[in-house]
Amino acid sequence: MKKPKFKIAVRKFDAFESSIAAIWDSFCQKTNCNFELEAVALDLHPLYDTILKNKGLANGDWDVSLINTDWITEAYATQAIEDLTPYIAKKAPENFPEGWSESLLYKQRFNGGTYGLPFHDGPECLIYRKDLFESIDEGVAFYRDYGKPLQVPQTWDDLMEVAEFFNRPEENLYGTTFAAYPDGHNTVFDFCLQLWTRGGDLFDANKKIKINTAVAVEGMEFYRKALQNTDAIHPDSRNFDSVKSGMAFANGNLAMMVNWFGFASFSEVYADSKVKGKVDVTNVPAGPNGEGVSLNAYWMYVIGKGSKNKQLAYDFIQFAVNAQNDKLLTLEGGIGCRKSTWHDNEVNIVVPYYYKLEELHQNTRSLPRKSNWSAIADVIDQVVLDVINSEKDIETILNQAQLKIDQIEN
């Protein structure tokens, strides 16, 4: 007899797909589950469309989905996801909530309810090839050319200078990259990082989104110049999302990049990695009047409001987020969310800087919790595209975008 399907929508990434498949197999062995897993891996836009735009979570197309912090408020506001509070009260996840940092639990809380459990984490940071920075030959050459020691960049200007030094197309090595693919996420994250690391803010005094500021102009001027600098960045940067950037780094094609911590970890566990054992991480570079603030965004499991298998869905999630499976995800190339994983000896042998996650979390900022954030993000996404694909006056671009944001907010 054909088994019924249990459907999970997954963000397309090898580590996510392999770990969820392995966890499901283990779950079924333990519980004698009579369902067949149908895990569908989707890129960001198709994932958003199927679970929220097309109401897949609300109408029962999906039992479970991975969802990121950008979308969780919209999912709650549109009643697309199940409140997990009564399930947790009966059968809480292992060491809940103490087993996680508060920074990984608050985004999914609304009106006393908990609407998701952490799956994958990893703040943005500067990921770099420590073998290049520790090389005596490279240090001598850099001092000869620039008259100062070779150091891991602490400012955006330093980043581009060092990127030019390491940019060697003939060796298939490029100084750095920016994930400039227009998906409403990567470009938006870069916009926010440029703003925050220069001492700026997304909000005005009235808590309204305000992007036409002097600091935003400064950040976008840097970003335009950086994306146009063919002597420093990977030529495919405009087609890179964070995953493709991470693959380029693991393939040995980048000296450094600002990206999610998970792609540093991935470079240690990916079987074909060319940089295993040659990687380290540090804070995001800063602007001249700011500090290296990181961006905290994470993925979580949610249950579809329309699922006919809600108890099974919760039982699976409750099992999936235990300490053993959190570690399994990490060793597959994802980023476990539990404190126990961050400090696990085996994990830190495989990924020697894994313990730094706790420190990185102490200096993070998050995107706003707004049900209309996807619409606002689309406007910011277009801002960045206009900045890097045209020579239009940046202040004008921001002023025009602000008018659109004001319409959305009002």
What can you see in these coordinates?
By secondary structure, the chain is α/β, with parallel strands linked by helices. The protein is 45% helix and 12% strand. It is built from 19 helices and 12 strands. It has a 5-stranded mixed sheet with strand order 2-1-3-11-6.
Question: From the helix content, strand content and strand pairing, which structural class follows?
Answer: alpha/beta
Strand content: 5-15%
Provide the low-confidence segments as ranges.
Answer: none
Q: What is the approximate shape?
A: globular
Q: What's the gyration radius in Å? A: 22 Å
Query: What is the straight-line distance between the termini?
Result: 55 Å
Number of β-strand runs: 12
* Largest sheet descriptor: 5 strands, mixed
The number of helical runs is: 19
Helix content: 40-55%
Mean of all residue-level pLDDT scores: 94
Q: Major sheet: order of its strands? A: 2-1-3-11-6
Question: Helices, strands, pairings?
Answer:
Elements: E1 5-11, H1 14-31, E2 36-42, H2 44-53, H3 56-59, E3 64-68, H4 72-77, H5 85-90, E4 109-110, E5 113-114, E6 117-120, E7 124-129, H6 130-133, H7 136-146, H8 156-166, H9 186-196, H10 214-227, H11 242-250, E8 256-260, H12 261-269, E9 279-282, E10 294-295, E11 299-303, H13 310-320, H14 323-332, H15 339-342, H16 345-350, H17 356-361, E12 364-365, H18 373-389, H19 394-409
Parallel strand pairs: 1-2, 1-3, 10-12
Antiparallel strand pairs: 3-11, 4-5, 6-11, 7-8, 7-9
